[in-house]
Write a structure and sequence with these properties.
The complex is a heterodimer. By secondary structure, chain A is an all-beta fold. Chain A has no helices and 22 strands. In chain A, strands 13, 14, 15, 16, 17, 18, 19, 20, 21 and 22 form a 10-stranded antiparallel beta sheet that branches. In chain A, strands 1-2 form a two-stranded antiparallel sheet. By secondary structure, chain B is an all-beta fold. Helix content of chain B is 0%, strand content 53%. Chain B is built from no helices and 25 strands. Classes of the chains: A mainly beta, B mainly beta. At the A-B interface, strand 2, strand 3, strand 4, strand 5 and strand 6 of A face strand 5, strand 6, strand 7, strand 8 and strand 9 of B. Strand 3 of chain A pairs parallel with strand 5 of chain B, so a sheet runs across the interface.
């Protein structure tokens, strides 16, 4: 029986290896490695198991000053990070409902669109957003400096959502909106929603009789201000 | 059978007698002392019962098939946790934490709304009543679409039930609802608004007058073709 325990490649070429635990398992306390600790590498890949419950629980502590990169984690306890959690935006999207696969914070410009175009100028037209998994939450402010008198046709929409709304009835989302300096007909309530399959927030008025109509150019003035917020779901694959 | 005892002084020497015991019958290696090593390659399983302290060195797990498995202990990262594959998986059953800085749940899903009038739903039919949700820690965000084809024959106050998680029990759990309504009537001068019921999984809709008087919506405010788009973010109980 070959019972080689350690083999030390001490040829001073800078690639020294301590090998030879193949085929056995090691139970130990107090290992300290001052340099890279490699499992698998180009050989047969193995697992690093910390406290499998055979004896007492243990922790794996990484004190590296830089980032610690883990390709795959199966853990039934806690992951504690003293920095942040970085989720690679170019990584693979998951269809598992318990997998968080995206996080992004950002800012975008937005516009108030009538029909298919816009030609107003703005004092401000911007939004911030955060996307966590499929959930996108945007908030923004549009203040019109010069509406322009071209009287464009079509319903009023806020353009520029960072991701399109999922194409499903369940993905329709009501937006909340604050407004000032509007030509709002008496006793009509203003409401807004993100429509499925699109990247717009539609603006509507609704009468006491429940008749909803898209807002249009006539509802706005120079100086009209809209503050909006909307949470909606985008496609998992995006 | 106790087979061998060695002491690894550094990577260039293997000398004996420092308390490492290899049992060639059981195939185990144990030690109660400290090993200082430069590069270590393990092609099978390393089971660390105590703490594995890597000092300032890097830990590299073979990217093709190696896993880091923390069966019972915690994983502590000194720097940033990088999910290069872009995914962080949570268990399907939440392991709730009371710590305010611990993200302990992520879940995406669908749900169905149900509308009752006076507690009954006789004859109510829908074209659709679908909702989406995501739960991130305690935060639940929902969107949804309800379109009636008949409001049925029951009368009384309206209640929309079916939220995927109960709302936090306490006045701080109250949450207003984003609404877009169509074919829902109200008296002139009133506004329609809604809120989530604390310690419950329902939405109450009401009207409020210019004087601030609030009245719960009833079947009389609905039509057979009423459409509701809702959105809401609220805190769940855990």
């Amino acid at each position: 029986m070959t019972a080689r325990l350690f083999y030390v490649d001490g040829d001073a070429d800078g690639t020294e290896n301590l090998t030879g635990i193949t085929g056995s398992s090691a139970s130990a306390a107090g290992f300290h490695f001052a340099h890279p600790f490699i499992i698998g590498a180009s050989e047969i890949a193995g697992d690093l198991e910390v406290a499998t419950g055979k004896l007492s629980d243990g922790n794996m502590i990484m004190d590296a000053d830089g980032a610690s990169t883990i390709g795959d984690v199966d853990a039934d306890n806690l992951i504690t990070t003293n920095g942040g959690i970085y989720i690679n935006p170019e990584g693979t999207r998951s269809t598992d409902v318990n997998t968080l696969d995206f996080f992004e914070e950002g800012a975008k410009s937005c516009r108030l669109v009538f029909g298919v175009g816009f030609d107003s100028t703005y004092t401000e037209a911007s939004m911030n957003y955060v996307r966590i998994g499929r959930l996108v939450k945007v908030n923004g402010r549009i203040q019109i400096r010069d509406l322009n008198n071209s009287s464009p046709a079509g319903g009023a929409r806020i353009s520029g959502l960072p991701y399109p709304v999922t194409l499903s009835n369940s993905a329709y989302s009501a937006a909340t909106i604050y407004f000032r300096v509007l030509n709002n007909p008496a006793d009509e309530q203003i409401q807004a929603y993100a429509s499925k399959g699109e990247d717009y927030i539609y603006l509507e008025t609704v009468t006491a009789d429940g008749l909803a109509s898209g807002m249009n150019y006539e509802h706005f003035l120079n100086g009209s201000t809209l503050v909006f917020q909307c949470s909606y779901f985008t496609d998992a694959a995006l | 059978m106790t087979k061998q005892i060695v002491y690894v002084d550094d990577v260039t020497r293997v000398v004996g007698d420092a308390g490492i015991v290899y049992d060639s019958v059981a195939g185990t290696m144990t030690t109660s002392t400290t090993i200082n090593a430069t590069d270590v390659t393990i092609s099978d399983t390393l089971d660390v019962v105590g703490d594995a302290d890597f000092g300032g060195g890097a830990v590299t797990i073979d990217g093709t098939s190696g896993d880091v498995v923390v069966a019972d202990g915690d994983l502590t990262i000194g720097g940033t946790l990088n999910a290069n594959n872009g995914q962080i998986a949570f268990p399907a059953s939440q392991n709730a934490s009371a710590d305010a800085n611990t993200l302990d749940d992520y879940q995406e899903g669908t749900f169905d709304f149900d509308i009752t009038f006076g507690g009954g739903s006789t004859g109510i039919t829908y074209d659709d009543k679908a909702g989406l949700y995501v739960k991130i820690g305690k935060l639940v965000t929902i969107t949804g679409y309800i379109k009636l084809t008949s409001k049925g024959t029951d009368t009384g106050n309206c209640l929309i039930s079916g939220l995927p998680f109960s709302i936090h029990n306490g006045n701080s759990g109250y949450t207003s609802v984003g609404l877009r309504v169509r074919n829902m009537t109200r008296a002139a001068g009133e506004q329609i608004q809604g809120y989530g019921t604390i310690n419950g999984a329902s939405i109450v809709l009401n009207t409020v007058t210019a004087a601030g008087a609030s009245t719960t919506l009833t079947d009389a405010n609905f039509e057979d073709d009423t459409i509701l788009i809702v959105s809401m973010s609220y805190l769940a109980t855990a």
